[in-house]
Amino acid sequence: MKFTLLHRDGNARAGIISTDRGEVPTPIFMPVGTQGAVKAIEPRELEEVGARIILGNTYHLYLRPGTKVIEAAGGLHRFSGWDHPILTDSGGYQVFSLSELRDLTEEGVQFKSHLDGSLHLFTPEKVVDIQRSLGSDIMMVLDECTPYPCDEGYAARSGAMTLRWAERCRVHAARTGLPESQSMFAIVQGSVYESLREQSARALTHMEFDGYAIGGLSVGEPEHLMYRMTEVCTAILPAERPRYLMGVGTPENILESIERGVDMFDCVLPTRNGRNAVLFTREGKLNMRNAASAFDFSPPDPGCSCYTCRHFTRAYLRHLFKSREILALQLATIHNLTFYLWLVQSAREAILQDSYAGWKSRVLEGFSAQATEAS
Amino acid sequence: MKFTLLHRDGNARAGIISTDRGEVPTPIFMPVGTQGAVKAIEPRELEEVGARIILGNTYHLYLRPGTKVIEAAGGLHRFSGWDHPILTDSGGYQVFSLSELRDLTEEGVQFKSHLDGSLHLFTPEKVVDIQRSLGSDIMMVLDECTPYPCDEGYAARSGAMTLRWAERCRVHAARTGLPESQSMFAIVQGSVYESLREQSARALTHMEFDGYAIGGLSVGEPEHLMYRMTEVCTAILPAERPRYLMGVGTPENILESIERGVDMFDCVLPTRNGRNAVLFTREGKLNMRNAASAFDFSPPDPGCSCYTCRHFTRAYLRHLFKSREILALQLATIHNLTFYLWLVQSAREAILQDSYAGWKSRVLEGFSAQATEAS
To answer: What is this model's ipTM?
Structure first.
């Protein structure tokens, strides 16, 4: 993997991540394909909406279908029919949020599967091996994602262990040899404590990873703290490596974080909100179940050129949601992902034209127009 | 609407139904779009799988979103984004199968909505008016679909009333003027009684409808009776009008009925079975949840050229179904509808080549190969 920083506009960056499976323009949003599929959308439609890289979840894929099936298929790309880049998380986040009976030690984290209660151990070395089996283009180190709130003492001890785990991942990858096509990102932790974030970012920078994620945010903390922690990290992280803000976020969050130097994002919001009838539009969120749409034969987002907006009306989408038609989920997902990809593509163009701040203000202003309609 | 009978091979027929919205080659299978959408598939994908005409349900669309919304949208085609032909049923079948509190009189049938318990009356005249609002290319008369078993006395009285209702539909359409683009099919009833079927088919033929459906079959009666009733009807119905066997059926049922002179079919089997993980293949039904597929990286149906079979494996589909991914429903629906449309298209080619009987035997032989795997 190679990262080319093309241009800066303030702290906002436009670049290109080059992988064996294609180039990814940054800033970029990665649709979430938890179980080897982005929910309610086909791989060919992911291409159509502008997705260039998607995310897979190690925790889920390890438990089902399991690495044996995916290895036999020739890796996650061939298994899932997506031959563009894939980033896999380390499974750490899901171990802490989904599984029961977590036993966290220096060695790693033992957990009980949320599917069948079976016991498993994730160590830094093991998650590297699993992600090697998956064949992801970008793999993540194992980390502990601290909850919010989290006292400083715990955050410090956890952050220190996350650093030792990152080093173990790096050493294991070096020792066992990772395919040229696979790169590894570290994850900055430290909860909402500036000094801990700084320590983490510095230490990881010294270890020289291919890229750096900022983890443990968007877990319930106030937005101003998310933005503050983000800028603390990006001020330290090396300019020549991509920065990935994990699990973020709303369109507003993404624009604010791009302004603070973030290059990559992933979030379930566009897909999950879509399935819950909430569409993101240039004029804010639109709840398709609202009666206001019953006789509204305009497109969900008149400024959008996606399949959904070109062919269907608000009235029809409302009918599909009220009637619990699966097509509602498909059309909403197509639109919301198109919107998110449009957002980062447009941000990129604005950065390249040194007009990011003004563009961002205009876009955010537009969002407030229909804010009252959102669910 | 114009029907051109191109060729006969025995009693099997190849033809073309010409409508203002395009030509429909027959024999044809019509995917079922109950609520203004075929479940789990986009209109552009319906075109891709070879659908040329789809079915809409008057009962459902009348209750939700209601004719006012669909009229305001400019008709069902514009509302749903499907600009090829649509056939709408009369709602009779759903009144008897879904609604509560049916009060059947000579005037019509009063029923309570399955959605909100509201009371409604369907008369022959009213269902014509509703279907006029929907703007369907082919509308159906109101009928009573008798259950199975049904004693001969009831079937006779019901069949006689269905004839009177058909005449009322015809008269109402003539009196109020139906757009040139809309045609009307009558429905032969008579349960499993040959003489009643003959009476019904003769009487309706005299009334001169644009096409003729055979209703009240595939409701639980033995298959040999379905086939017998079908051939009794097709022997009487006018050769120069299309014949439509309502709600049928399995691939075997369709091939047997084509051999008996049927031109049109609709059924929820391919879409519903697909959503239940059962795929139709050239080698019989395949339950995608079976463990046998866990490491099977071949396409669901190696002879099929649909999007699903070109890009995905049995192992992946099994994983999607086990993981309850919506994509499973989408991919299975695409395949099953492609299969059904392939079946009728191939039947048509065989008829045109005077080789229907031999082709049918070979296809049916193929189906038995994996029959034991079906759910």
So the answer is: 0.97
